[in-house]
Design goal:
The protein is mainly β. Helices cover 12% and strands 41% of the residues. It has a three-stranded mixed beta sheet, with helices on one face. β1, α1 and β2 form a beta-alpha-beta unit.
Length: 64
């Protein structure tokens, strides 16, 4: 059985839209998808968008 988790990393200047998250979840057939949101403070580096985004984690787990 596969377990799908989605990690949404955003800051308040660059929020991730619900539409973007829905597009990612449509790609998986699993009934249960865990979505975690993390808000980080705005970074003062040149490429601050490198950390923000939608990350997908898929793991195989044994069924009991």
């Amino acid at each position: 059985m596969k377990k799908v988790e989605i990690l949404v990393v955003e800051d308040y200047a660059h929020p991730i839209s619900e539409k973007d998250i829905e597009e990612v979840t449509k790609k998986f057939k699993e009934n249960e998808i865990v979505i975690n949101r993390v808000h980080i403070p705005k970074w003062d580096i040149e490429n601050e968008n490198e950390v923000t985004g939608v990350y997908v984690i898929v793991r195989e787990v044994a069924e009991v």
